[in-house]
Structures are given as C-alpha cells and as structure tokens.
Amino acid sequence: MSLLRLCAFSKCLNGLILLERSVNRLSKARHCHHSFTFRNNSEMRISEPPWKSQQRHFSAAFPKKEDGKKRLCEQSQLLDVLEARIQQLQSDVVLDVQHSKVQFVKAHKSERGASSGRNPKINSGERTEVPTSGKIVGKVAGQTGKGKDDSPSKSRWLKKLNEEKTKTKKLKKKLGFEDIPVKSKKGQQMLPGTSHKIISTKAVKKMASSSKKSMTLKNQVNTVAAANQEHTVAAKSSSASKVPVRNAKRNRETLKALYPELSEEEARTQELARLERKAEADALELAKVEELERKLKQWAVSVSPEHVKDNGEARAYEDVQRRVHCYLEACVFSGDIDRAGHFLLSHHRRVSRRKLLNIESYNIMMRVWAKMGSLKQIGRMFILVEEAGLKPNLSSYCAALECMGRTPNCPPRFINRVLQQIQWDGLSVDELFRHCVFRQDERDMVLKAIHTLKPDFQPSIKPILHTCSSPLRTDSKYPKLAFSLDELQKRFNNQLCLEQASTITINSVEALKPRDLLAEQRKVWHKTLVKALRESKAIMASSTQKVVRFSLYPYLCLMDEKEYADIMIQSLANLPPSGESLHILAKQLGVRVHNKFCILMKEQNQMVDKLNNIYNEYVELLSKDNKVLNVLPREQWQTLEAKHMSGPSLLGDECHWPHAVVLELGTYLVDLMVKHMKVNSDILNSAYNRKIIPVLYHMYTFRSNRQVGFIKPHPILTQIQQDAMETTLTFDSYVMPMLCPPVPWASAKFGAYLLTPTKLMRAVLGANQHEIQLEKCQEEELHPVLDSLTQLGNTAWRINQPLLDVIISIFNGKGSEKLDVPPPLSEAPRIPRYNQQELATYTSAEKAQLKREVINAKKKCGEMHSLRMDALYKLSIANHMRDEVFWFPHNMDFRGRTYPCPPYFNHLGSDVTRAVLVFAEGKALGPGGLDWLKIHLVNLTGLKKRSSLAGRLEYANTIMDDIMDSADNPLNGKKWWQNADEPWQALACCMEITNAIRSPDPTQFISHFPVHQDGSCNGLQHYAALGRDVIGATSVNLMPCDVPQDVYSVVAQQVEGFRVRDAEKALKVAQVLEGFINRKVVKQTVMTVVYGVTRYGGRLQIEKRLKEIDNFPKEYVWDASHYLVQQVFTSLKEMFTGTREIQDWLTESARLISKSGHTVEWVTPLGLPVIQPYHRPRTQLLKNQIQDLSLQISHDSKQRPDTVKQKNAFPPNFIHSLDSTHMMLTALYCYSAGLTFVSVHDCFWTHAITVDTMNKVCREQFVALHSQPILQELSNFLLQKYCSTNARYFFVQVFLLMVE
C-alpha cells in the first residue's frame, strides 16, 4: 500500500452539463416576454415583472409538499429527454465523436412521488439507463411498475423525445447509417443507446464537394460505399459491427417521394445540399454544447459531489463544523493531542457525525503529526480524508511536505508524488506559499522538502497590485509624521508590550479616599477562584464521558488559572450596582478569554519577531528623517511582507469562536463567581451576626416582556466599592489608544492593532456573512477603502491639558448636568424606604404612588451610575495619555461608515471627549486661519445659523471680550461659553483664539486645534443630488447662495404656515400650537426622515420636544405631536419632490428582493460590497449549570430574510453607504494634498490653515460621486443579481433536489 492515498477528484458529468444547459433554457423562457404553451396547451402572455420570476425561482429551491411529486416527475422525464438529445447531437454530426460516460442520478424507489425535501437518504451512485430508440429503459418518478404513465396528461417532454427520435431515424436512413451497440474490451455490451461511429474525413470531403460538382446518383452511392468500406476496416480493429449501405433503388424511390416535381439529378443535388446544411447546423449546435462543457469544466470541482456537500448539506452544519475546528485547535494549543485525536476519530468512525468534519478539521491533526515528523500518521490522515469523501487542499499538502522536510532521509519519491498530486489537482506550489498560513518554521521545512527534488526552487513573489481605479494618483507622496525613526520604533515596542499584557491598569481621576478593604477582599476572591477552577478542571479531566461530546475543558487549559481569575475579578469591578444580564456578562468574559488566546497563539507561532522586523522598516515611510517614498502605507507593508517571506505568516489562521462557545465559557466562569465569591456579613458593621454570604446573586427579571437571567451584586459589595473610591482602573489593552501608528490595512483580514484580533467590518458576534462577502471581493477592489481606513488611523493626537484640568475639577466636585459632567452618586435621589407596618396604613393609590417613586428613583440612580462611570473611564484614559502622542485605529460597519476601534475615548464621543482632543501635529494659522477659528467658534455656539460666513466673523469680532474672559476665567468669569450648544469645545476654541491673538504674530502661531466643517442635513443632500432636485438642493446648500440655508428653519416656517391656515379653520390643535413651533421642535424629525424614520417614530420625537417646553399644555401633547408630524412630512414632500420617490423605489425593491428569499446587497461606488444582515430570528437553547440561555439569533444567513427590516433599512443604509463613500474619497484626496484629515461621519476636521483646501476637495468629490449614474448602476446591479438567471445557482439547487 502506498504511503499516501490521495483521493481522486470527480470529473464533470455529461448529465450535469446537459442539466445546466436545460436550466438555462428554461429560466430564459421564464423571463421571456412572449407567449409560451403550457402542458395543458393553453397560452399565457408573460407580462409580470422580473421580481415575480425570481419568486418562482426561490420556490423551486424550497418546494412545497404538494408540488414535490409533479416536480420530481418532470425532472426525471427531463433527464430522459436530455440523454436522448445529447446522443442525437453526438451521432448526427459527421465527425469522429468519442462518447463520454453519462451518469444520471435516479430517484430512490421509496421516494417516488414524494417531496424531495422529505427523505434525503438516496444512493447517489445509482445510474439511470439511457433510452434507446423508441424505448425508455428504467422507471421514472411518477410511473408504476408496469411502465405506464400515471400522470394526468402526457408530458410535453416525452412528446419532444418522440419527435427528436423520429427526426433522428429519418436522417440516419438518408445517410445510410444505423446504430449498432458497441461491446467493451471484456465483451460486455455498453449502455443501450450508446454507439460508436467513425466516419472517414475523406468521405466527408467527397460528400461536401458533391454539391458543387453535381454528382450523379451513382457517385453518391459510391461515396457512401467508400465511407462504409473505411468504416468497416476501422470497426474490425475496434471490435465494432459493420455499417450497411442501402441499395440505389431504394434511394431513388426516396428521392422521388421527397421531390416529385424535380428531375432525378436535381433531386439528388437538393437532397445533398439539405443534408450538408443539416450537418453544419448540427455541428454548430454540438460545438455550443462542447463550449458549455469546456466552461463547466473550469468549475467542475464546484459541482462535484464534494462541493455540493459543502454548499448544501454541510452549510446546515457550518456552525457545528466551526465549533469542531475551534475545539480541536484548543486541544492542540493546550497540548492535549490525545484528546484531539480521539475526538476526530470518534466523529470520523460514525457516519452520522462525519458530516460535522471538514477538511480543515483533518488539517489540524496533520499539522500536529507534521511537527512530530510522523509520515505514518500523515498517511493515515490522508486515508481518513479519502474515506470521508473530502478533497485535500493546499494546507493538507503543505502539512505533508512539512513532515517530509522534518523527516531525515525522506525518500524523494514521496515528495515527488505530493508535488505531482498538487499539479494534477490544478494547483501549484507557488499558490501553496502564497495562500497557506505558516507557523513557526513550517515554511522553511516545506522549502527543505521541495529543495530535495528542486534545489534551485524559490517561490514566486506575488506582485503588489496598484489600484488603477483608486482616486489617489500613483505619483502622490504620503505625508510624513512629525516623529523620528527612533521615536516610532520605541513607540512600537511600548505598544507591543501593552498588547502582550492584554490589560493595563491606570490611575483613576476619582481617587480621593483610598481604602485597603476592597483590595484585601480581591486577593481572597482571587485565591478562591483559582482553587475552584483547578478543582473543576480536575473533575472534567477525570470524567468518563464519551470523547465524542464537546467539553469546556480544552478552553479552560489555554491559560494559567490565575489569568482566568484576573479576568473574572476585572469583570466584577465593572459590574454596575443594578446588576447585569447573564448573557452580556458571559459574553464579555468569553470575548476576553478569546482575545487573550489569540495573542498567546501569535506568540507561540513566533510571529512577534517577524512583526517587529517589518514594522521597524515600515515606519521609515512615516518618519520625518527619511526620504519621501511614492508609495502608500498598504503598498509599503505588502512589499516588506514579500521581502521578509521566510518564517511564520503575519496573518494567522485562528478561527473565531462560535457565539455558543463564547457564551458557554463565559457562563461557566460566571457560575464559578456566583458559587465561590463570598464575604462576611459583618464586614461593614460588626453589629450584624457574622455569616458567609455570596457576593453575587443569580436572579430573574423581565426585559421587554421576556424573563432573563440577571447577576446582581450584594448591597455589601456595592457599598464596599462606593466607599473604596478605587485609585486604579483596569482595562483591556484594545480599549486604550495606540502608542504607535496602526498597522495598515493590507487586506480584509489584517490591520489596526499589532496582536489584538480586529475585524475590518464590525458585526454582531456570530455573524459571518460580511466576511464571506469580503472574501469573494477581489483584493484590488478593496484598496481604496483599505487606504482610507489606514489614513484615518494614521492621524496623531494629543491631549488638551489645560481644558482637561478644568473638566476634572468639575468632575471631582458635584459635576454639572448643564455642562454634561455627571454628578457623583451622592447627588442621586434617595430611594424611598418603608416597613410593613407603615405600608399597612396606606391606601391602594398611595401604595401605587410609592411604588412608582421607588421605580423612578432606582432608574435615576442607575442612569447616574452609568453616566458617571462612562465619564470616569473617559477622563481617566485622557489623564493617563496627557503626556503621550497616540493614534486611533479605524474599522467600519457593514455600510462603510468608519469608527475608531477604542470604544470609550475617541473623537466620535461626546462634547467632553472631543474638546480634550487636538492634533499632535501643529501648523501655522497663516493669513486666514484665525478667521476660521472665529467662524468655528460661532458655529459651536449654535447662533447665527442663517448668517453668512462674513456675518459670523463679524459677530465673533464683537464678542472678543467674552471670548477672552472665557479663556482666562472659565469657572469664575462671565461664563459666556456655558451657553453654547457645545460648551466644552467652545471653551477650547476660546483658549486657542486667545493664545493666537496674544502671540507676536497670529499668522505664525502654531495651532493644533481641529476646525470642523459639518454637512447641512447630509442625508437630504444625497437625496437631492440623486433626484436632481433643484429646490431641495438649494435648501441644503448644494446650490450657490449668498446666505447659508437652514433646512430645519425652512421646514419650521412651512409648518407654521400650515398651522395658521388650519387655525383659521378653527382647528383646536392648530390654535393651541401658536407660538410653539420652532426649529428645535422639528429638527430631529427632519434630520432622521431621510434615514427611514416612520410617522410613529417622528411623532415620538416631536412629543419629546413638546414635553421639554414648560408652558405647553400637557393634555395636548399627543394631539399636537400627531398633527405636527403630518405637517413635517407634507412639508418635506413638497420641498424634496424626488426624495420620497427614490425612498419608495428603494423600499419596494427591498421588499420584493426579500420576499423572493434573498437579502439585499449592493456595491458602493468605491467598490465595497454591502449586505444587510437582517434575517428572521431563530431561538437557540444553550444548557448550562447556572441557567439555560435562550438566544434570539437574527443574523443567521440560513434563515429567510426579515422582509420588514430589509425594506425599512435599505433606504437609510444606502444613503449611509454613499455618505461613507464621499468621506473616503475626501480622505484620499486630502491626504494626497498633504492635509491632516479626520471625520465624524459627515463632519470633517482639519487644521485652520487647510480648511479652504478641504472644502474644495469635499465639494469636488461630492460632484464627482454624483456625476456617476448611481441609481442606474444600482438598478442594473439589482436586475442582474436578482432578476436574471443564475445558471450555477439553479444547477446546484436542482441537483440537490434530485439527490435528496
């Protein structure tokens, strides 16, 4: 037996080719707008839209029970017709045709007449015999054992079959041939209907020339006789029968019957010409079939049984396969090789569980045996792969070559066989080095094995792809950072140490009364948790459960027990006094363990050293003391990766844990915390009786009419934490800003942090459809998006220290709700307390009132605690970074909207966090910079909305005394800044203006302050541009105007006009609203209507605004909000004529798409694929010791789309994608011009001196974006994807239906 039994690939079957061709024809017929005939001979005009056709297609993929019998019968009859047709095409043409074996899948006897989705057990290897002349051999679904047709009416396909057979017989008679069954070498007769014909090309030439030379009947007979003679000679050598020649007399009679009005010679000429045309037409048709076969062979693997299994049956087990993969990976990482091997074999030996394994599961064990150099085990794994019906991939062959490289004196024939098999599979060794992920020295071992046969082999380097369609010019120069090479390298080392530690402890800005009580208790709890975890693991290890079952034991062995205890103690510190749901707390714990595991795996794979080498060379592009390079960061990084090709891969192949694994692991850790973390009851008051009580309680509560598990801290723990006033805070490393420039996004899988796993596209835990879309997308198409994210992340920041000190002083006082600084919990309202004796004296109404007061007080305390902790985290992080320069790595959501990765402290935060952030790089104000600072200050105040820029500048000059007083005495002066819409940013701008004015030369003043340019209702701008709406475009400043337009004020004026008209008609609610309609009341509704807000949602928004007006009569709030939302929608419809039409078209398109069973997808103008992840929810039950979790999963791509969410979300998501595209284009061009640029969605930031340049780029890119036919391209994309025939989709679906 050979060492490696490599499985062979399935070839493309002729039957599948014919099925593909037939499906194409049938699907095109469905889309045809001409009439066609059904089986009942009735005609119907196809006038329905393509969407209806798509709905039928989806129904075909998911058949109903009533239609299953008829469909299966038609499919079986169709196969018979297709078989006969291919035989006719291959036999009619006068060529040397070599038949291929045609294999068709026949329905199982037990399933005749049943729905294809009911009984999936079927023998896929069973064959249906090919029908011979006039007979159908074998039974088809829907026929009885006697061969009678039990269908209501005879199928039109069987009629077509008889017609084709009749035409074939006539043509064979005229040519003088007949089919004779061919015997195989062993003497067995081949399938009925399969014949072997070899027609001499010499005879063909004679026949072709006969029409030109007007051959006589004798010449024709001689020609046929000559062809027959040559055929006889050939038939003897191939054990075939002779082909007889009809006599001349019978031919003359046939010609006379066909052409009675012509002479004998003319009849011969006409007949030969007709036969020649027929032969040419059939040859052309056969050529089309062969062309289709050639195209199908290019993806023959994808329609092979293995691939159909992966895309059909295995898709249903995708989550379980991923769980198996993660389980084996955890076992191998923790060193438990025996457990991994037994788990894999136990699943392999049971056929019912073998479907849970994919090729990657076997590859994990191949890697293990390859590291050990065990060729015997590698060969055994390939045998298992063959038994499982799977196909080895590049990683499989990589493991085999690695093992041979580690084996001393490995026979070269083994290596040669692997290399040959790679070539036979249509792969190459270069692809192996290009696509495989290497760990440690795997690449070197593979090269060592290959060098045994090819000493001079070197893997080819993949060329760096430059994006031709990128808006960046190829000759652009990337701007330098204001840091030397040594400084950037030191910062990289600091960031690397931070991420390797996984956590960081910083000083808290609230540390006023430190106590040792909480610290002592944490030490006790830490020891208790470590002991409990060790005991639990010992029980799991000694358990006699079957190996086939999943266990948490491998996941508890990834780290030391002390690290798990640290994670649990950290989560306890972040637990709010009101408690947290078990689901959220478990997810937080599980994610922390997974992130730590990913970092440890990268360290184990020796990736850190390689990352260090590449990054140290990469920062030469960014450092100020090196020459300017005409490459982008992504291109530089890819070049360096190719240069340092040896060693491990930077892109790891660690699998993201399934949602269920994360929650089960987290729930297990929460259970340990609840059971083993305890405290003495008299720790705070010695008067109480001492007893041991748990620190955490597991209870149940109701959230949105659903009962959910809740983890609530004991009041003693809450009191200890409040009294302790901790001096330090512990965060995960990814919460902090980076200390060095982020790793550029070189691909969709690698970028941002050094070691911490980061997704390019944010998604709900467990959702993977976005990753699949990005993998399908060509790499070069994503380059503009990746480059823009990289450039946003390369902006350096620092802290505005004077302003931070002012904020902290207010924070450590009593706070200020007016200034958005949350007060401490000591300022929270007291929760009413009462005893049972007092409660007995209350009436029912008083009891209800007391209950409401308690609920409101608890709600207020919970809100104050959340806001306080959020501000504490932000200010503590800012205080920790006050002397540092830092960066915010960026990623995006599924629509392309960009976000900084650190969650707490970033420039997308509140007014406080934005105010304390300034650019690390400073630039001189120049001649117009100071004016832009003044205009920016007026914008922050919210005043002068309808004034021109000159008017705003003039207003700023009139209040210079207030500006300078605010800067000098922010807390004790006039406090003018506190009345601004954004008070803290206004105060920061006052300080910057004051410093610039007091400098010797304001034009040379180095400013770090970011100036903002915000869009005017950006969603309406895009709608107006899409609809070419001049009136709407004017109201949102898309048209030149002397005075800036304010769409919110315009809408308020129109609504007021409607109110006056209705008040004159004595409408009571219109009369009540007199004097209350203003810009603030309608702003939120106007701003959100373009993002899909409904009238109901708009009414709630207006209701909230009306309740904020003190003197508005509360009894008219509902009626007034209902009235105003109608008037706002009417006003917008009149102002933006095309907006509602576009919204309706997008909504209706999404409704039809989702009704047909598909999610809505599109591609942004910058090439980013977008898919809406809204599916019908399904419930998944996770059983745990502490509580069974019932998960509502709404992102499962195997579920049908949620039509309501799909149609409601499409218009706003599409506008968001256009908005992000415009931002990315602006970012690319700004960086090309050397500008510092960041964005908060539609609000763009830059230095004061470069505001004019940024505005110019912003407008140019908006025009360039909407100069494209965006709606037309979207329409074409939707029609092509959802309305046209997808041959491959239907081919696989029909094949799956037949197999099932």
Automatic annotation (TrEMBL):
Segments forming a coiled coil: 245-292
Domain of life: Eukaryota
InterPro entries recorded: DNA-dir_Rpol_C_phage-type, DNA-dir_Rpol_phage-type, DNA/RNA_pol_sf, PPR_rpt, RNA_POL_N_sf, RPOL_N, TPR-like_helical_dom_sf
Gene3D superfamilies: 1.10.287.280, 5' to 3' exonuclease, C-terminal subdomain (1.10.150.20), DNA-directed RNA polymerase, N-terminal domain (1.10.1320.10), Tetratricopeptide repeat domain (1.25.40.10)
An individual GO BP term: mitochondrial transcription
Subcellular location: Mitochondrion
Pfam families xrefs: RNA_pol, RPOL_N
Keywords carried by this UniProt record: Coiled coil, DNA-directed RNA polymerase, Mitochondrion, Nucleotidyltransferase, Transcription, Transferase, Transit peptide
Catalysed conversion reaction: RNA(n) + a ribonucleoside 5'-triphosphate = RNA(n+1) + diphosphate
Entry EC number(s): 2.7.7.6
Region named Disordered: 106-131
PPR repeats: 358-392
EC class of the enzyme, as a word: transferase
Cellular component aspect of the GO annotation: mitochondrial DNA-directed RNA polymerase complex
Functional note: DNA-dependent RNA polymerase catalyzes the transcription of DNA into RNA using the four ribonucleoside triphosphates as substrates.
Family: Belongs to the phage and mitochondrial RNA polymerase family.
PANTHER family (alphabetical): DNA-DIRECTED RNA POLYMERASE, MITOCHONDRIAL
Record's subunit section: Homodimer. Component of the mitochondrial transcription initiation complex, composed at least of TFB2M, TFAM and POLRMT. In this complex TFAM recruits POLRMT to the promoter whereas TFB2M induces structural changes in POLRMT to enable promoter opening and trapping of the DNA non-template strand. Upon metabolic stress, forms a complex composed of FOXO3, SIRT3 and mitochondrial RNA polymerase POLRMT; the complex is recruited to mtDNA in a SIRT3-dependent manner. Also forms a complex composed of FOXO3, SIRT3, TFAM and POLRMT.
Protein name (record): DNA-directed RNA polymerase
